[in-house]
Design goal:
alpha/beta, N-utilizing Substance Protein B Homolog, Chain A, Alpha-Beta Plaits, 4 domains, 4-stranded antiparallel β-sheet, 18 helices, about 45% helix
């Protein structure tokens, strides 16, 4: 047990020192260390949990430190965070065991001199957990939301300005809820009724997606999913419902030519192929070789043979694609603020002064290049997993001003059919999905479709 927690400390230390991402670090640790399924689950639970609630945990710890201004080494602080997370969010481990393991952890580190402090602080927290004082919501709403929901103050201030106080709190609360695992059934190999029977045989609980009941469902208790026989057979893919909605709204037809401008790792590319019944051609552009290999691997697993992988920077024009595509997907690189519940480390990344300037340049270049690949009468779908207007409606408004031969397509019928609750932005036809506002199990997404009229 202690060896697992030692790895968690190492992972959390690396994240802060190297500005790494959990979804990249964890798989590397799983492949490097021999861990059973329980240890893997524990590593994932605590690593994500501590990252998600880091500021809240530090607030609790701070109330029980004798010398509050004393700088605590990162490793020691992470040992404290791990323990406090277990106190408040994991019920199966007794408090005394958590304290003892934490003391042993620090004794076996380079900071054994902190063993007494850790023992005293943690025992104090277990005795006085009901006495924790939070910022006053009425007097300091930004600080309250920031601490209680564990978000940086600058992001809370930004969202209050954009969405208002109540909605900002709802977004933060929803972004801390661990999402159910959403699966997209591979209709090229199996239908939904057959897939439900298989899940029932495997004793995996599920419920149909309220938005896409014919192809998607949410599951619980599906452990070690990548090694399951039904995954290896390509009967389904893992993909959030918001992401699936983008491909559905693109509405590609069998036999069409599609260009996916940023295809890696291949979730939307494969979904588009399935909608097209694997008939036609999808040019999957991706500048990162390893991500392009993921697209190819996913297509092979799912039995899709109409995807043409292209290793290329999508911001640079490829003349052979000029006016070649019936439809184009631009799933643009973005801040990712809509998917914080899946990637909690995003909220701790610091945005520099030129953050949006650099992102916007890429987003605009992708759109301008895609526009030239599209046939007259063709449709271009732009999407991000962001809540920020600078990389959503602001980008589209500038594009439309420059490209007067494009018009925004209506979305009201699609929104009504799918039962979506969208947040109204300055482009009324766009679909802005916001966590909490649009549903508690929804990632934040921005989706807008444009038609080239000449």
């Amino acid at each position: 047990m202690n060896s697992s927690r030692k790895l968690i400390v190492e992972i959390l230390d690396r994240m802060e020192k190297q500005d790494s991402y959990l979804n990249i670090l964890l798989p590397s640790y799983f492949s490097k260390h021999r861990l059973d399924s329980l240890d893997k689950a524990l590593l994932q639970e605590i690593s994500y949990g501590v990252t998600r609630f880091k500021k809240k945990l530090d607030w609790i710890i701070g109330q029980f430190l004798v010398y509050k201004d004393k700088q605590i080494p990162l490793t020691v602080r992470n040992i404290l965070r791990i323990a406090v997370y277990q106190f408040f969010y994991l019920e199966k481990i007794p408090d005394y065991a958590i304290v003892n393991e934490s003391v042993e952890l620090v004794k076996n580190s380079s900071y054994r001199g902190y063993a007494g402090m850790i023992n005293a602080v943690l025992r104090n927290i277990t005795r006085k957990s009901t006495e924790i004082i939070w910022p006053d919501r009425g007097e300091e709403p930004v600080k309250y939301i920031s601490v209680f929901y564990s978000f940086p103050e600058w992001l809370v201030e930004r969202w209050i300005k954009r969405f208002g106080l109540e909605m900002c709190q709802d977004i933060c609360a929803a972004s801390n809820i661990r999402s159910d695992l959403a699966l997209r059934v591979n209709i090229l190999k199996i239908d939904m009724a057959q897939f439900q029977k298989i899940l029932t045989q495997f004793k995996i609980s599920f419920k149909l997606s309220p938005f896409l009941p014919d192809i998607a469902l949410n599951v619980k208790g599906f452990d070690d999913i990548a090694n399951s026989p039904i995954y290896r057979k390509g009967l389904f893919s893992i993909q959030d419902e918001s992401s699936m909605l983008a491909s559905e709204f693109l509405a590609p037809l069998a036999g069409e030519t599609i260009i996916d401008m940023c295809s890696g790792p291949g979730g939307k590319t494969a979904h588009i192929a399935q909608i097209m019944q694997s008939k036609g051609t999808i040019f999957a552009l991706e500048k990162n070789k390893s991500r392009l290999e993921m697209v190819q691997k996913e297509a092979s697993r799912l039995g899709i043979d109409m995807i043409v992988p292209v290793l290329a920077d999508s911001c640079l024009l490829i003349k052979e694609y000029l006016e070649k595509a019936d439809k184009i997907l631009v799933d643009a690189p973005c801040s990712g603020t809509g998917v914080i519940r899946k990637k909690p480390d995003i909220k701790w990344k610091k945005w520099g002064r030129n953050y949006f300037k650099e992102l916007n340049k890429t987003q605009e270049n992708l759109l301008e290049t895609a526009a030239r690949y599209l046939k007259p009468g063709g449709e271009l779908l732009y999407t991000t997993c962001s809540l920020e207007k600078e990389e959503n409606e602001d980008i589209i408004l500038r594009f439309l001003k420059k490209n007067t031969n494009f018009v925004v397509r209506e979305s009201s019928q699609f929104v009504k059919e799918k039962g979506l609750v969208k947040y109204d932005s300055s482009i009324k036809e766009a679909i802005q999905i916001v966590p909490g506002y649009s549903g508690s199990n929804m990632d934040g997404f921005y989706i807008v479709k444009m038609r080239k009229v000449g």
